[in-house]
Amino acid sequence: MLTYLIRRLFAAAVMLVVIVMVVFCIFFLVPKWAGVDIASSFVGKQADPAAVEAVRAKLGLAEPIYVQVWEFFKGIFVGRTYSGGGDVTQCSAPCFGYSFRTEQAIWPVLTDRFPVTLGLALGAAVLWLLLGVSAGVLSALKRGTLWDRGAMLVALGGVSLPIYFTAMLALAIFDHGLGWIDGEFVPMEDDFFAWFQSMLLPWVTLAFLYAAMYARITRATMLEIMGEDYIRTARAKGLTEKVVISKHAMRSTMTPILTMLGMDLGALIGGAILTETAFSLPGLGQAVLNGIRTQDLPIILGVTLITSLAVLIANLVVDVLYAVIDPRVRLA
Question: Looking at the structure, do residues 140 and 199 belong to the same domain, yes or no?
Fold first, then answer.
């Protein structure tokens, strides 16, 4: 187990370096190859030429590429000093970028909005796992019944309906229509119960989409596994159906579920833009949308890094859970 964990940690470290280099290329090299003035993108197209030149000097865009990559990578761990144009700007570690338009580091903005997005993603994940996996397992065990057809019909609707449609419909019914839920967001530190109430509808709306996908995947995987030889052997040995399903079938079924969970949860931590916009949640998705509207490139860069790291960490956790669920994975 320890050897397996060390291998996965080493692979994650290598992938971290690759992610940082890819993000650097996307935001610094590709625009340069396309003929875009990177300094103007960071300070705003309406800035005067002196301000653009100062930002160009601070970002070190005249330096060789390997120097720029090193400064960008080093800044994430030890901070970075932007000097040029007659002044010095300090970006403390971890430096995920600096907005020369608003004159503030990106990391405090991300940490201020991150708890909202994390709460949305984790709450919805709990709901879609409970509902989706349970519905998929029951549909597989009751194949061809009215429950199976009804559950898969609802799942098909959940997959087909756009998230912004279900969000607007939920707000129209439960907030504006029935008045059961107040749509205004309340921070957790102000009032936990008010925060829980304000997050309930976004959780259900977001979970409805993912629960539908997880139900269909769980059903298909469970049906395939129930026909395997080792399931028939377990039954032939006299094990009860409950033991066969819980101890043997579910362990194999959870492998693709964990794979999906790692990808979905990691991506959602980078911001659920449509859900956050529909329910006016001040999360990372809203930060990205505001950055696009105001053309504040450092905000988009920072959220991109956060999303990439979240997916990396989520997949590392999933790899460890693989080894816990199925010891054969440790030999791979």
Answer: yes
